[in-house]
Amino acid sequence: MTQTTELPGAGTGEVLSFDLTSRPWIQVLRSDGSQDELSLDQVFAQAGELRRVLGDLATQEFALVRLLLAVAHDALDGPGDIEEWAELWEDPDCFASVGAYLEEHRERFDLLHPVTPFLQTPGLRTAKDEVFSLNRIVADVPAGEPFFSARLPDVSRLSFAEAARWVVHVHAYDTSGIKSGMVDDDRVKGGKVYPLGTGWAGGLGGVFVEGDTLRKTLLLNLVAADTEELDFSPDDRPAWRREPCGPGSDGRSATGLRDLYTWQSRRVRLHHNVEGVHGVVLGYGDPLAWRNMHRLEPMTPWRRSPAQEKKLGQSRVYLPLERDPARSAWRGIAALLADRLEETGGTEGPSRLRPRILEWVARLVTEGHLSRRFLVRARVAGVRYGTQQSVVDEVVDDRLVMPVVLLHAQDPTYAQQAISAAEDADRAVRALGDLAADLARATGSEEEGPKSAARAEGFDSLDHPYRDWLSAMAEAVDPFEHRHTWQRQVRQIVGRVGDRLIAAAGDAAWEGRTHIDNKGGTHWLNASLADVWFRGRLAKALGDPGSPGSPGSPGSPGSPGSDEGDATSGGDGPHTPGPAGLPETDDVPTDPEVYV
Question: Which residues cross the membrane (predicted)?
């Protein structure tokens, strides 16, 4: 039974408890499109009827999904192997045992418990007994510089449900910086603890897999313990099955997924009364080093760090590959698919590792538990911090729907063409940026602004078409021909954007001016010549699909056995044009599946 306590000064004798297993606090989207707020018990009991968890931010949703996964892994004590996972996938009542599990640990899920409050440190205090504003845990109001306008200018009170969500979030994504020191924390110097880094998830390029129901989402991310790419330990358990944390840290390392998904990177204590939560005490908890955690953390891509390898004298050091908020998920698709496509050779290892959660889904396909036509929605969530990681600058929130055939471990052809298609788009947009720069030169104007704006417009115009093309790959019989279709579509779309730029350039651009090129030569540059150069660059970027040496043809960049790296076409100076022009419409496919 959940213990309760009478609040000092409440004056009514009212006893408070907020039991997260039975009280609604997790926001959800139902399959009919309506929104609701459910308890932990209800979320698992109704998972097949829910579309997804909702959060005040995408990062809060990411943190809550990881919490639910920790509950599922621990309640099921598995899955132990892929066959056990397959039985869960086929069982509509696969989470039936979670209710008894939550009942067993009900006391540890009480947000207001006097001895073991949920994910908090009882009695946590500073030497001056300070209680701070809730701005410290609500990520959309960074201290002194509000991020969203919903709670301007201050967060004075939170409901218990809302406070519970932000407690989960602060452990995952709290900012770094100097924090108040807690009594009995041996890291305190002069009343403060100096920066120890963000919450664990704050350093990740967060990725998880979404299904069309929350039940499927949880199962698709419920990695079996016989997965070779991840380490599992019999000692692994979530925070609520450990002793409550004290003010300091014992320096321990994570034991596995359940531990990592509920990692206590902060020490938190909520201050509340009968009306809700009105203050917080927040300090540093258990820091974790991000390097070489790729065998424990499945929800991020990883990159080799030569600098860390040299510094530490180690042959291979991997760090999380964080997301750039300015780049859509499809432009970074290589990070989701990368390591299986590299020729590793010897003991060097790949330069990047795709998220192990996608490696797990690839295994489900390879072993026949998911159809090759299954569509995987990769959900991307994360933050970009500013000012020495002391404030939240931007939140990353994106999805990429991919046919599961892209993840097939023994058949990398589809993945290679998907990555190369994104590179086709990048090369074409570089050509578009060069066109904008040339038009600016033709009028004697500043170049970087128009070039950046043109590139942004180019990527925006290709965003939905690429996503539609990628989804349609599930039905593509020939991935090479499917990519050729994409190249033709890119040439038409980017060509039309170029036409608009030229038309908007004005009379001054058509008249032109003398320009000095990179080699010191002079020539007359106007809109007409800029157009010729643009068509040549676009032809070089995309070629004539199917012709020898064109992108996507055998032996060319993007084909099996090629050494294509990052796209390098484009630049600020004039280029020797390729073909002077390209057909505008005759070779553009009319297949409606391309233009969904």
Answer: none
- pLDDT score of 277 more than 60: yes
Residue 581, both tokens: 């022009």
Q: How far apart are CA 375 and CA 395, in angstroms?
A: 25
Contacts of 242 (CB under 8 A, 6+ apart): none
Cis bond before residue 551 (omega within 30° of 0) = no
Listed by start position, the domains of the chain span 302-407, 413-595
Cβ-contact 402, 378 below 8 angstroms: yes
Q: What is the mean pLDDT of residues 558-563?
A: 38
Chain position carrying tokens 């994360």? 382
* Cα distance between residue 579 and residue 540, in whole Å: 8
Q: How sure is the predictor about 2, in pLDDT bands with cuts at 50, 70 and 90?
A: very low
Report the distance separating Cα 464 and Cα 399, nearest Å.
12
Identify the weakest region by mean pLDDT among 174-178, 268-272, 347-351: 347-351
Q: What single DSSP character describes residue 494?
A: H
Token pair for residue 521?
């030569």
Mean pLDDT across the stretch 65-93? 97
- Predicted TM-score (pTM) of this structure: 0.85
Q: Are 505 and 436 in contact (CB under 8 A)?
A: no
CATH architecture entry for 413-595: Orthogonal Bundle (1.10)
Structure token digits, residue 501:
């730029």
